[in-house]
Write a structure and sequence with these properties.
Helices cover 80% and strands 0% of the residues. The protein has 433 residues and is mainly alpha-helical. The protein folds into two domains: 190 residues, MFS general substrate transporter like domains (Growth Hormone, Chain: A, Up-down Bundle); 196 residues, Growth Hormone, Chain: A.
């Protein structure tokens, strides 16, 4: 056996699953550092469109004269848009390149946030929100692809960085929207409009990044010949629906998203029904969300150094089970502990995003896997909060909903173990390097 074969057989899974695909032509020296900042800014913009609306939802409903049905539709739109528009990401990425699509996605986020505060009715507000959510969906799918392409030896670290930024943006918009709106002396329109500024900053940074990436791609195509360049651009990657690992990742993504949406939507009500004050219940939800900021950086870095990420999935699931059991038996007495435990459990999101980058060998494989896992996963997550609300309404309490929430963690743990195995979708689909 040659030395090279020996190295290939013995190196860690994170390295074997990462086949560097840097452009053959030298990149500008500034591109790497600026791209890191751009990734962080993009991640910061992936949730404020949703959580800022949540903070001002009652005022927005009243201001636009929304019916209860329309209001319910708006709350279900994010997951639906993530699923529908995320499917288009691979095709757009092959046509224009992932960097250009993310730049366009940030522009869509900014445009939607700029337009919707000026909407006169629910239909216009919904359309503008859908525009922002479409941009978020494309960026959701393609950020792991950009990490894989430009930082192939730092997948875990870079995934942790943007997962931490995403969690920070989520928490910041939820906590700061109302105080900033009051400080500015404006109404709900001002509160929603101010988050467009953050998206516009991201667009301004991604424009030069997109231009540099486009020049590099053109130079690479010219260097290797038009035929080879076209082959690189049109590579569609493996047929992920044939991969058991892809399905495990998609279902794991769906169940963790279900748990996260249920927690964000219903945790304060669980505490309030147990006798906790409304203000304290809000703080407890903030604690749950803030837990994701540091752990979103730590978990991907740890996962990227491991052959098998199943142990992390099991650990996060056990934290969640303990938290739900605590809510079942002593919701008020141990409220702070249960909030922390559920916050740790919700860090399954950065874990599954990291595994998407590790379970494919090439950028083409990552974009297909990311689109498949996220789109399928978000579709799976749509019924969760509605089912929990229905059970709560008809059972008259939280015993049955909490039992279901805890029960969903059992298949989530099992799927996390399957998704975390040391293999790639290309191997399962019979593709050769």
């Amino acid at each position: 056996m040659s030395d090279e074969e020996t190295k290939t057989r013995t190196r860690p899974a994170a390295d074997r699953a990462t086949v560097p695909a840097p452009p053959a032509t030298a990149q500008p020296a500034w591109l790497g550092p600026v791209l890191i900042v751009g990734i962080v800014l993009a991640a910061l913009n992936l949730r404020p469109a949703i959580t800022s609306l949540g903070a001002l939802f009652e005022e927005t409903r009243t201001g636009l004269g929304m019916s209860g049905t329309v209001a319910g539709l708006i709350t279900s739109v994010p997951a639906l848009c993530f699923a529908v528009f995320g499917v288009t990401a691979p095709r757009l990425s092959r046509r224009f390149g992932p960097v250009a699509v993310v730049c366009a996605g940030m522009a869509a986020v900014a445009a939607g946030l700029l337009i919707r505060p000026f909407a006169d009715g629910a239909a216009g507000f919904l359309a503008a929100s859908a525009l922002s959510l479409a941009g978020i969906a494309l960026t959701n799918v393609l950020l792991p692809v950009i990490v894989k392409r430009y930082f192939p030896d730092r997948v875990g670290t870079m995934t942790g960085l943007y997962s931490m930024a995403l969690a920070a943006g989520t928490s910041l918009a939820a906590a700061a929207t109302v105080p900033l709106t009051d400080a500015l002396g404006g109404g709900w329109r001002t509160g929603l409009l101010m988050w467009a500024a953050l998206a516009l900053v991201a667009v301004l940074l991604w424009l030069p990044i997109a231009r540099a990436a486009r020049r590099t791609d053109r130079a690479q195509a010219a260097a290797v010949g038009s035929g080879a360049g076209a082959a690189v651009r049109t590579d569609a990657g493996p047929r992920v629906a044939r991969s058991r690992t892809a399905w495990a990742l998609a279902c794991y993504f769906g169940l963790q998203a279900t748990g996260a949406y249920i927690t964000m939507g219903w945790l304060p009500q669980i505490f309030r029904d147990a006798g906790v004050s409304a203000s304290t219940a809000g703080v407890l939800l903030a604690v749950t969300m803030v837990m994701g900021v540091p752990l979103a950086f730590v978990i991907p870095s740890l996962a990227g150094r491991m052959r098998n990420q199943g142990a992390i999935a099991v650990t996060l699931g056990v934290f969640g089970l303990t938290g739900y059991l605590g809510l079942y038996f002593a919701p008020a007495a141990g409220a702070w502990a249960w909030a922390v435990l559920l916050g740790v459990s919700n860090c399954a999101f950065p874990l599954v995003i990291t595994m998407i980058g590790l379970r494919a060998k090439s950028p083409a494989g990552v974009v297909r896997l990311s689109a498949f896992a996220q789109s399928t996963g978000y579709l799976i997550s749509i019924p969760g909060p509605l089912v929990i609300g229905t059970l709560y309404q008809h059972s008259g309490g939280w015993d049955l909903p909490l039992a279901l929430m805890a029960g969903l963690l059992v298949p989530q743990i099992a799927l996390g173990v399957l998704a975390g195995r040391d293999r790639t979708i290309e191997d399962e689909c019979g593709m050769r390097d």
